[in-house]
Each structure stands twice: as structure tokens, then as C-alpha cells.
Design brief:
alpha/beta, 272 residues, eight-stranded mixed β-sheet, 8 helices, binds zinc ion, single chain, Rossmann fold
Length: 272
Amino acid sequence: MSECIWSCPVCGMPLHPAGKSLKCEKNHCFDRSRSGYVHLLPSSRQNAKLPGDNPEMVRARRNFLSKGYYAHLMETVCRAVQQYLPEQGVLLDAGCGEGYYTNAVRQSLADAAVYGVDISKTAADLAARADKGTDYAVGSVFHLPVQSESCDLVMSIFAPYCGEEFQRVLKKGGCFLMVIPAAKHLWELKTAVYDIPYENAVKDYALEGFTFTEKLTASREITLHDPQEIADLFSMTPYAYRTGAKERERLAALQTLTTQAAFEILVYHKTL
Ligand SMILES: [Zn+2]
């Protein structure tokens, strides 16, 4: 990768490779880690010692995804990107986690430049170790360290949404792809744990600054036979933050679980 889309988190100028580092015109310099990612999150934006998902959550997610339970989603995302990303296009995975989808998408493309950014250092490190063909950075989705109008496609898979930033980094007419849980995603897991389970809210698809193009779905039933896998899955969900002792007991008692893994893949284009 001779050039790159990264921009300096201090002054906003483009970064250029300089040996194993990246430098801007003003000589702000950012070294690559041993695994290969570059840290582009200014200390002023680091609120906690470990922003984003903590190492335990990152490992739980990696363990779960490595078993292939969400392979149907991964394959649907790959097909969508193949359809919408131009040959030799530039793709940014905004909130890429440990790169499960990023890596798969890159491998499905012949000639694209693929970048991943995540606020968690643990996640970016795991991603960079496993995937030498993608350029990974630690950075915030809300202040992407990415040059304006440098990307043909931005994807956001269960990651925070920042419309202004996604529009800024997309080229004119660029594509935005977002994955959200379908209404009944993990329904059986919720009914096993909660007294009153709720379906995921289905929101209006309209996004300011984007034109809705199409909705794809990826849905199948998955069966987990291991309490650890069930715990890993649960820790990936937003409910993990707001679950009491009674629910945790029910969760721990589950030996097997058959549940729906149902997703919506929403495709948009940047409005002129
Ligand atoms: Zn700079």
C-alpha cells in the first residue's frame, strides 16, 4: 500500500507512509504497532484507559464469530460489497472490531483497497494480526482519521452511526452499507432470559444525506451446544449491559440454545 486514506488526527492533513510510520506535512508522526495497525486516536479523545469494547468482550466476540454462526451474514455482506464497490475501489469498515467481516470482505475482492478503523486497541490489534491485507487504525467513528471524499464504500456493522462523518469521507455518489439486527434476532435467547422480552425496534430506514437503495436480509436458525458459547453470544449483545442477577442465572443455566440469527443489510448512496 503506497498511499493511504488516513489523515492526521492532530492537524487533519493527509498522512503519507514514511518507513514504518505515517507522517503528515507538519511532521506529526504515527508509528505502526508490531502487529501493523496505526494508532490515530488523539489522547484528548481517549476518555477511558480502554475505550470501546474491553478485551474480554472482544475475545468473546472473536470466539463466537470464529465458529461460523454468523457466516450467513458475512457471505451476504461480501456479495453486497462485490456488487456495489467499484473495481479497485476504496472500502472503509467504520467500527470494524477485530476484523471478522473486514477480512472476509477483503478476501472476496480482487483489487480493492480495504481499511478498518475501531476505537478499541485490543480489537485493532487482533484484526491486524490476522489480516495483513487490510490497513487497520485505532480511531473514532465520530472523528474518523480519514481524508474527505476518499472512500467508495463505507460499511458499518453493529457499530455506532455518525452520518456526517460517513458522508464526509465518501466520494460523490459513494455507497453506505449498514447492518442492523432484524426484529426477531436472538428472540429465543431473549425469551429464555427475560420475563418480558422485546423485539428489536424496526426503525424508519431514512437517513439524512443518503438515498436508500435496497434492503437485503440474512437469516437462519443457529444452535449452540456449549454454555460458554451462549455466554459469548450474550456478551456481544447490547442487553449484556442491563441484565440483572435473575437473568444472569437463567442464562448460566442454559445448556443448549436454538435461536434465530436474523439481520438486515441496508444499502444507501450518498445524496449529492
Ligand atoms: Zn499533522
